[in-house]
Amino acid sequence: MSLDVSKLVEKVIPDKEEELEEFLQNPPDNLENTEVYNEYCRKLSEIGKFEPRPDLKKDTEYWQNLLKKAYNLDNQVYNLLHFLRCSGTQLKDDNGSLRMVPAEDFKEWNKYRKEYLLPIKDIIKDLLNKANSK
To answer: How many CA atoms lie within 13 A of 12 on its CB side?
Structure first.
């Protein structure tokens, strides 16, 4: 099986879910080989780079915009936002402004909000405004 999934690397688009599913359902036979396993994991990481939760379709475009802008701005900010999306955080349009809404089962939201988001609230607000303007 070829590991070439370059057409999915830039972003996961909801209409490409079948291709992602195919990739996940047909891993290489020799995943016990460290190099093959590492390459497979790297490709999976690339696939979800700008939308790690394509199952949450309503705000996919916002998250793709936000994560791309954060990725180009700062690695730590990108990693924080990527983690929050992986945890189910959604972006909601609130009268023209985007706001983050945690998943109901994200028990540590207040901790992450207080310790990580609030200290960089101006950066986050700017990124949210840019993501909303596309």
So the answer is: 25
**Most distant CA pair in the chain, distance:** 51
Measured distance CA(83)–CA(111) in Å, rounded: 14
Alpha helices in the chain (DSSP H): 6-9, 17-25, 34-47, 60-73, 75-86, 109-112, 121-133
DSSP 99: E
Distance CA 125, CA 122 (A): 5
**pLDDT tens by residue, the chain, 134 residues:** 333 334 433 444 445 566 667 767 777 788 788 888 778 777 776 777 888 887 788 998 899 999 999 999 998 999 999 999 988 999 999 888 999 999 999 999 999 999 999 999 999 999 999 998 85
What residues contact residue 130 under an 8 Å CB cut-off, 6+ apart?
65, 66, 69
pTM of the model: 0.71
Give the number of other Cβ atoms within 10 Å of residue 50's Cβ.
23
